[in-house]
DNA sequence: AATTCGGGGTG
DNA sequence: CACCCAGAATT
């Protein structure tokens, strides 16, 4: 295990991507922003967005006081815009509770909006150089193949899997942080989900999955393809795209034009308002007509 | 443990 | 066209 770790870290020293949130002048807050943006959004799409975002709001204090509409527009099409909302809430909590500086202990990080098990561990490792168990989709896949001999990890994490991952993390803070970055990078660049490049893998000769002849995914039948066309998520996305482009409040008729199913649209609008992503303003009058309402991003 | 929540690139 | 992407929050 220690030998495989050394090989992966040595490979990382030569092949790590030159990502801006890894630069020497990085800040803990910049690392956290990258991690939140990277929650289910690929690196190639995050990188330009992160550069623009950090140029505009370099510190938690900057983001905390920004107009939410600007924040949602800057988030653009990274997806799951509630993440942008939580990131701004996170900035406000950091300012109010931690004096504007990101905390480095696990519990305080986990208490921040939008920060879960993975993100807290990643920030501890990559922003503060502390030991933590960073178990994302990349590390899960690397360990599933290398250690368990399976094509892909189970749909959900298990206690045994976390225990295994923890056993792979060195005791030393610096070594642990390097292993976390290296194992993630190996999963992202070599040990990929679709077409793994076992020919250039630094631990191919130690991989149980490769040794077994790269058997098929045993969990394939339990994975559900994400439906998209006609879903609430697509409808919500249409509405958010419209409101991001709009200069002022958008009349109900214009919103209705982006989605054919009026009942579904009404349900999604209610949900967007409840989520704090959209503000509905009813027309003046004692008996407000729903069709006379306007919609906009929150200020 | 299962659902919900965007959007786009790729084999 | 199915699948995947540095997950989190809610139920």
UniProtKB/TrEMBL annotation:
InterPro entries given in the database record: DNA_glycosylase, Endonuclease-III-like_CS2, Endonuclease3_FeS-loop_motif, HhH-GPD_domain, HhH_base_excis_C, HhH_motif, MIG/MutY
Catalytic reactions on record: Hydrolyzes free adenine bases from 7,8-dihydro-8-oxoguanine:adenine mismatched double-stranded DNA, leaving an apurinic site
Q: What is its EC number?
A: 3.2.2.31
Q: Name one Pfam family in it.
A: EndIII_4Fe-2S
**What superkingdom heads the lineage?**
Bacteria
- Residues in the signal sequence: none
Q: What class of enzyme is it?
A: hydrolase
The record, for PROSITE patterns, names: ENDONUCLEASE_III_2
User: Which keywords does the record carry?
Assistant: 4Fe-4S, DNA damage, DNA repair, Glycosidase, Hydrolase, Iron, Iron-sulfur, Metal-binding
The cofactors it requires, by name, are: [4Fe-4S] cluster
Q: Residues in domain HhH-GPD?
A: 37-189
Q: Which family does it belong to?
A: Belongs to the Nth/MutY family.
Q: What is this protein called?
A: Adenine DNA glycosylase
To which species is this protein native? Cellulomonas xiejunii
> Lineage, please?
Bacteria, Bacillati, Actinomycetota, Actinomycetes, Micrococcales
